[in-house]
Design brief:
Length: about 475
């Protein structure tokens, strides 16, 4: 492909992209294909001769598009969002065109310096402590692993990096509602899942600080070394907000690293009324949140903040001769701030998004999503056939379908699973589930970039229609 052909195809692609984003809500939100659908449509061997881009793009639309779940649809209410926006897409186009490798300052000075500036902007927007230092990681899963590894090295005077991990007596703590990425990080870091302590939660699904204190004291008595507590602001199942201030009193007393996973909820800290969630933040060692979830910035982009920058860098710094530069020590070489050597220019899309929306525009959108969730919550509360299963804190509503004459929890779980499948099979909206207190729980997450009241109203109608059909099926 030459420059002229590239230009022509790029214009065609951009027109298709704009059309797609305008009409994305017309697609079935959840892909309706069956497992294995793609294999017979693609040859078993790669082509020997070049193929025309027009043919490739036609196959993209014919073969790939049906197997896509449309995360950018305003009818997407599943999981937590992985949002995009027009300015973010434009920035990603530039990032792909530049194709720069941002491992150190010298490989792209603008990338390194813009990343530092963007992390400072985020810190100001969310009112995180001035003593935090920020770096963009790919995901919150990586950031949590980085936190555990830094805590491990600082606790051992950086000996494990040299001698290896043997007969670990370290303990890591999180609530029973903590994200599965914590389990994975504990495995990767070599601590072993037997040393991950899942602390019980209260009636609002928040980490129980009394249970945490007892677990820490018991472990110390039994010869273990409490290393890190991972608290959560906005758990995946219910957006429960762990009490940071009370947890930090325990971690400070026992010299334990406190990491906060605020993957979704962190963005909402731009709203002053939500900053109660970070009371006690001055005693936190590290925190991560994902602009790629609720700040309309394409995946992947995780904002990781750490109090002890020196320990972070000392944990990960490697300086082979071929990467040594004259600017080393004068600038931020972000390859030393995490696991990856190679790094994408993620700060560019963040810069585009923040400037395009403005802080005021971001606040307005986040507040609107929360207001929509409040309205949906009121519908559940007022309904005879639905009930809330967890307090709503932000933009997630946890609920289930109920029938007065059915009290058996196993049967209710089966009914709600059947309801969810019926809802998603319409292709018009997409919800997911969790289990809270062993109850099958439907999750309605209202946070997609372009979601509006009409989409929530339509979702409520579809949920009720599917529930009504289910009632008819269950009637004798």
């Amino acid at each position: 492909m030459n420059s002229k052909e590239f230009r022509n195809e790029a214009h065609r692609f951009v027109d298709w992209m704009a059309d797609y984003l305008e009409k994305v809500e017309d697609f079935p939100v959840k892909s309706q294909v069956k497992p294995g659908y793609l294999n017979p449509q693609i040859p078993g061997s790669p082509p020997e001769k070049p193929e025309l881009m027009q043919e490739i793009f036609t196959d993209f639309q014919k073969i790939i598009l049906p197997g896509i779940t449309h995360w950018q649809s305003p009818n997407f209410f599943a999981y937590f969002p992985a949002n995009s926006s027009y300015p973010s897409v434009l920035a990603e186009m530039l990032t792909s065109t530049l194709a720069t490798q941002c491992m150190i300052w010298e490989t792209s000075p603008a990338a390194a310096e813009l990343e530092e500036k963007m992390m400072n902007w985020l810190k100001q927007m969310t009112k995180l402590p001035a003593h935090f230092h920020g770096v963009i990681q790919d995901t919150a899963s990586t950031a949590t692993l980085v936190a555990l590894l830094t805590a491990r090295e600082r606790s051992t005077d950086f000996k494990i990096n040299k001698t290896g991990l043997e007969n670990s007596k370290f303990r890591i703590y999180t609530s029973s509602q903590g994200h599965s990425s914590i389990d994975k990080a504990v495995k990767i870091a070599g601590f072993g899942l037997d040393n991950l302590v899942k602390v019980s939660v209260d009636d609002q699904f928040r980490l129980d600080t009394n249970a945490l204190r007892q677990a820490v004291e018991s472990d110390i008595k039994n010869g273990f070394k409490p290393l890190c507590v991972v608290a959560t602001l906005g758990t995946t199942s219910s957006t429960a907000i762990d009490p940071i201030e009370e947890i930090s009193k325990i971690t400070t007393r026992f010299n334990i690293w406190l990491h906060v996973d605020a993957a979704l909820a962190g963005t909402s800290l731009i709203l002053e009324e939500n900053r109660w969630m970070i009371k006690g933040i001055e005693n936190v060692d590290s925190l991560v949140f994902n602009p790629h979830k609720w700040m309309f910035t394409n995946f992947d982009c995780s904002a990781y903040f750490v109090k002890d920058k020196d320990s972070l860098i000392r944990t990960f710094a490697i300086s082979p001769e071929y990467l040594k530069t004259r600017t080393q020590g004068q600038v931020n070489d972000y390859r030393d701030w995490g696991i990856q050597l190679g790094r994408r220019f993620r700060a560019l899309k963040l810069w585009f998004v923040i400037r395009s929306f403005g802080v005021e525009g971001l606040k307005k959108k986040i507040a609107y999503h929360i207001e929509l969730a409040k309205n949906f919550e009121s519908k559940i509360i007022e309904s005879v056939y639905f009930e809330m299963l967890a307090p709503r804190t932000l933009n997630l509503v946890c609920f289930r379908f109920k029938l007065p004459h059915i009290q058996d929890e196993t049967i209710l779980n089966q009914i709600n699973e059947k309801l969810l499948n019926a809802i998603n099979s319409t292709g018009k909206i997409y919800l997911t589930h969790t289990k809270l207190n062993e109850k099958y729980t439907l999750r309605m997450v209202i946070g997609q970039t372009n979601v509006a009241e009409k989409h929530v109203e339509q979702a409520w109608e579809i949920i009720n229609d599917c529930a009504a059909r289910l009632v008819n099926e269950l009637s004798p």
